[in-house]
Amino acid sequence: MIIWIIIGMALVTAVPRFFPAFIIDRIQFPKWIDRWLNAIPHAALGALIFPGILSVKPDAPQIGIIAALAAGALAWLNLNIIIVVLGAIAAVFLMTF
Prior knowledge:
The protein is mainly α and 97 residues long. The chain has four helices and no strands. The model has no long low-confidence stretch (mean pLDDT 91).
């Protein structure tokens, strides 16, 4: 009986995730909707990262802001993402050392 409950829960969570992926390829959206949908991952990533930037060191939020600017500058130079992350970590380390 428990296996059927697990299978049912898997289907209930999997279907809403996979179903839109199959439909979205067959629909032609207007250009403005397509641009809006392409901006969603960037906005979500920013919303997830921004609170962490300000809470790197709660009594000194400028450290996180400076590290974010350093990461932005490295990313603007089209460096590898690992270099960008390591640059931000190094910036925080040097400012808290």
